[in-house]
Amino acid sequence: MSACSRNVNQRRAKRSRKPFVPALAVCLAAGALGQSWISPALPHPCKARHQMAGSSPAPQAPQTLRTSRIPRKAAGKELDTDAVGKYALSIAVQLLGITTFFAAIDSAVKSSGVELPDWAVFALFFGMSLRSRIFSPLDNSRPDIQKASQGQATGGFNDRTMPSWTPPGFFFPIMWILIVAPLRAASSMMIWQQAGHLCDATILVLMLHLCVGDTWNTVNNVERRLGAAVPGVLCVWASALAASYAYYQVEPFAGQLLLPTCLWLTVAAALVTDTWRVNNTSGTEPLFPYRGATQTRFWFSTE
């Protein structure tokens, strides 16, 4: 082989060892996927190529790994354990109050020897479905229906940005008063007919659902904890499913009557979750009650 041929082969081998092709491929991949995934501890492939070529890199601001805005801004929030404790205590106290109330009625009926008519039991459960909050130690004031229908701000309505698919304000009282409450009353009356008394474990499962719902109302409408309302409404939904299942075990048709309530709460859960999303563009509202947002108080508290 001549000296000229050896020189040509050496130049070709030297060019093949240059990292141009691999570095270019990595640069294109980094440009397509975004540069935030590259660790700041490692030099960018394109910069490494320039440094190998002997050129000085331009000064750059220090890079950090890109993280979600929501976890970063909500990371400093501290769980409000006092509020969580009061929520749990409120549910227990409310359920105990309802249980005592039902037991007192059963005792009065038994001692008097007079049976309750079906319509009276239906009316009792209809009232419990709409006014169970009278047994709650928390502030469970409901939104003003008149203000909501007129577009004025009231707890849970027009006091926050709502998703575009939110039903009109008058739709909610129609659902609760004309559909949900009568179905709860009818199904509970069926269970009462089977059990023969009000203070029955199956009926108390539905009462527990009402207690959870009343506590959630405080979280969402009174305290306006939009983030904590998301797992809260899921608890309401789960307790409704539990009540429907418990009723179904005693009287299948009674359990089926509670299914529209479960369906409605599924829509409500989606609405609450989407409401949190559209009001949390800054990423400062976590999915738990945190200190500083508001203070949970019992209605009789003077603090």
TrEMBL record:
Belongs to the TspO/BZRP family. It comes from the Eukaryota. One of its GO terms (biological process) is tetrapyrrole metabolic process. Pfam families: TspO_MBR. This is TSPO protein. The chain crosses the membrane at residues 87-109, 165-183, 226-247, 253-272. Keywords: Membrane, Transmembrane, Transmembrane helix. GO terms for cellular component: membrane. Residues 48-76 are annotated as: Disordered. It is a multi-pass membrane protein. CDD domains: TSPO_MBR (cd15904). Residues 53-67 have a biased composition (Polar residues).
